[in-house]
Design goal:
Residues 1-27 form the signal peptide. The chain has helices at residues 3-19, 31-71, 233-236, 333-337, and strands at 94-97, 106-111, 115-118, 122-124, 137-140, 156-160, 163-167, 172-173, 179-180, 189-190, 197-198, 201-205, 208-212, 217-220, 227-231, 248-252, 255-259, 264-266, 273-275, 291-295, 298-302, 315-319, 322-325, 341-349, 357-363, 375-380, 390-396, 399-404, 412-424, 427-440. The chain is of the alpha+beta class. The strands form eleven sheets. The chain has a six-stranded mixed β-sheet with strand order 22-23-24-30-29-26, with no helix packed on it. The longest helix has 41 residues, at 31-71. It is flat, with a radius of gyration of 54 Å.
């Protein structure tokens, strides 16, 4: 029902109500009030009708715009023509399915009963205008080139038109995979030694023989005379950094083992070497009165003597590795300037130790109740061949450090003397000397 029809129905009902009432009857609607209601209803319905008409106009305008924009799109017949492929014919004794030769379309080929398909059974039209795959041919059943399994040693047969092709596995070649690739034995292969050679394990699978070797061996020889030769892991993993073994690698059938030089032991990882401390384990032969000093791969028995200086300066041993100066006379300035204590230190280092490396620390000790020095001076005593190899520097107010600044190649031994001078109120008090003996191992461990 339209708005005008709704308007007429409401007006008819109002007039009917007005006609059924008498002027004097109670309960009838006042005529003026009815007319007022009718006028309001008429205005309301006119407003609704105007809005409805405006909505229809707007919808028609949008629909027209949409139709105009769609009409601007290119039509299917306006697009560029698709590429096509040349027509394909069904092979003799075969059928072709598919009649469209546009890009992306497929054509399928099948053979009649009693024939088998050689070539591609499905051809796809490509964007360059050519068909994928190869030409198809229907051949009499039983005449397959691959039916006789012409490919040997695990080769895969692929049949073509009047021919076949063998795809050979690794180490095999030839038209039928009948020849094993011949190469010279690698450098890491152990040959001409029966202890390092074994027979391979061979089985036949689909009329082809497959052979394999145990871990640590590799296949060598031909298909008829193959043999498993040992892999020399020591040569395979040979590097300057000694990643396989810290010292010596010994090849054994199917594996390897590491060995260490005399005086060293093999660690639980089976590759690293560690020095044996003969002094700690009591494996030395040092006599009484001497001190055992552990070195890389061995030991030394030492008994350092106290220094012999001119004049009235003398020393006495207070321990196997330390001497103290005897009391000086008040008038002997040279005695007071001589070292008050002389200590001996032995350091065992690996060859080519990474630098810089702190080797030795020196500090002062003051007897209880006596004032200690308020300043210390550290240095390397001039002389010897240690110049440029070591550096003496302060690590804190009371400690000095001897630092190795140049890598040392073993085996060799060298000594360096370092001293510590004590001062109180800028006045010299005493001097202490440490003689450090550095023992460089021939090995890097």
């Amino acid at each position: 029902m339209t708005l005008s029809h709704q308007y007429r129905a409401v007006l008819f009902l109002s007039l009917l109500a007005l006609h059924s009432c008498n002027d004097g009857m109670q309960g009838c609607i006042d005529k003026q009030r009815v007319m007022s209601v009718l006028r309001q209803m008429e205005k309301f319905l006119k407003g609704q009708e105007i809005r409805f008409t405006e909505g229809l106009r707007i919808m028609k305008s949008k629909l027209t715009s949409l139709q105009n924009s769609v009409s601007k799109f290119p039509q299917a017949d306006q697009s560029s023509p698709s590429s096509t492929c040349p027509a394909l014919e069904a092979p003799t004794h075969g059928k072709k399915f598919g009649s469209k030769y546009l890009v992306g379309h497929e054509v399928h080929i099948t053979c009649s009963s009693g024939y088998h398909l050689v070539g591609s059974g499905t051809r796809v039209c490509q964007e360059n205008g050519s068909w994928s795959g190869v030409s198809s041919l229907c051949k009499v059943a039983g005449s397959s080139q691959c039916a006789s399994n012409p490919c040997l040693n695990g080769g895969t047969c692929t049949e073509g038109v009047n021919l076949y092709k063998c795809t050979c596995p690794h180490k095999w070649n030839g038209s039928r995979c009948q020849h094993q690739t011949q190469t010279a034995p690698p450098e890491w292969s152990v040959v001409n030694d029966p202890e390092f050679s074994r027979k391979p394990r061979c089985t036949k699978v689909d009329q082809a023989q497959h052979c394999s070797c145990d871990a640590g061996f590799h296949m060598s020889g031909t298909s008829h005379s193959s043999i498993c030769q040992d892999v020399n892991e020591c040569e395979v993993y040979k590097t300057d950094n000694g990643l396989l073994c810290a010292h010596i690698c010994v090849n054994i059938p199917g594996s390897f083992r590491c060995s260490c030089p005399s005086g060293y032991k093999l660690l639980t990882d089976g590759r690293s070497c560690e020095d044996v401390d003969e002094c700690l384990t009591q494996q030395h032969n040092c006599s009484r009165g001497t001190t055992c000093v552990n070195t890389g791969g061995g030991f030394q028995c030492v008994n350092p003597e106290c220094p012999h200086l001119h004049g009235n300066i003398s020393y006495v041993k207070t321990s196997p590795l330390q001497c103290e100066r005897n009391p000086c006379s008040v008038s002997s300035r040279a005695c007071h300037l001589a070292p008050k204590t002389v200590s001996y230190h032995y350091l065992s280092l690996p060859s080519n130790l990474q630098t810089p490396a702190t080797l030795f620390r020196m500090a002062t000790a003051t007897a209880p109740g006596r004032p200690g020095p308020d300043s210390l001076r550290f240095g390397i005593v001039e002389g010897g061949h240690a110049r440029g190899m070591f550096l003496m520097q302060r690590s804190d107010r009371q400690t000095g450090e001897l630092i190795l600044v140049q890598q040392l190649l073993g085996p060799q031994e060298l000594s360096v003397d370092v001293e510590m001078a004590e001062y109180l109120d800028r006045n010299f008090q005493a001097k202490h000397l440490a003689r450090v003996h550095v023992l460089i191992s021939p090995y890097k461990f």
